[in-house]
Amino acid sequence: MSDDLDDYIATLEEIDTKIHHLLRDLEDGNDLDVSLQVNAIQTLRNARSQIDPILLAFRQQQDSRTTADSDAITLQWTPTGAPPRRLIIEPATGDEGWSHRILEWDGAGWRPRNRSDIEDVAVRAPTESDHPSPTDPPRLETLRAKLHEKSSHPDPLALVFEATTTTEVAVVVAVDGELRYRQHGDSQWCQITEDELTRQLKQQGQPTLQPLSETQFNREHFMDSLHNGSESTTGP
């Protein structure tokens, strides 16, 4: 059942990704009649909304299965400029050998990156350790809700993506019911969608929640007056 669950999750993630790319192509394309284009986009969005709760339930069962298995060895870390990852070594199905899995956090759950069967597992660890037990990072859904909840506060909350070797520090805030993104050095903000926020996490790692006053920006940097009077662009 362990292998089956991994396959189910991988298949649903592949379907979800393909629908996402198809939606982007349809939204940018102009080859279809308007009514057909609108209907296709809505149908695909409905399909994704049906897939998401199933995928979430499968991921939760996968997480609970791993947590409940006392023989599983779990190591969690956060690479610089990348999402958190987990290495899980656990007994293979039928208790013959071991299974080696690497998972990556995608803002909603742990996405399998690769899996292999291994043998002759040996472990050496300190008898005393100050390292905490692995825990899930905050979900993007939770972080977005906190942004919107504090959006009218004099010092609103912001999501902060740390700089990497190729990108500057980026900040996301909620204004007028939408998420606005601005990178250090940018002359203006742009609107960012939920899907784009997930891609940003994959490119720059898990963001942290901070008061906007602790960044180099303030509320005015995300107002329409600093958008050069043009329509907002979408996506960083």
Structure in a nutshell:
The chain has 236 residues and is of the alpha+beta class.
Question: What is the topological layout?
Answer:
Elements lengths: L1 H27 L5 H35 L4 E5 L7 E7 L6 E8 L4 E9 L21 H10 L7 E5 L8 E6 L2 E6 L6 E2 L2 H11 L3 E4 L25
Antiparallel strand pairs: 1-2, 2-3, 3-4, 5-6, 5-9, 6-7, 7-8
Explain what the structure shows.
With 236 residues, this protein is an alpha+beta fold. It has two domains: 2-118, no CATH class; 140-226, no CATH class. It is 35% helix and 22% strand. It has four helices and nine strands. It has helices at residues 2-28, 34-68, 140-149, 194-204, and strands at residues 73-77, 85-91, 98-105, 110-118, 157-161, 170-175, 178-183, 190-191, 208-211. A five-stranded antiparallel sheet has the order 8-7-6-5-9. A four-stranded antiparallel sheet has the order 1-2-3-4. Residues 228-232 have low confidence and may be disordered.
Entry keywords:
2 domains; 4 helices; 9 strands; alpha+beta; 236 residues; five-stranded antiparallel beta sheet; globular; four-stranded antiparallel beta sheet
- Structural class of the secondary elements? alpha+beta
The strand count comes to 9
Which runs of at least 5 residues are low in confidence (pLDDT < 50)? 228-232
Strand arrangement across the biggest beta sheet: 8-7-6-5-9
The pLDDT mean sits at 84
Number of domains: 2
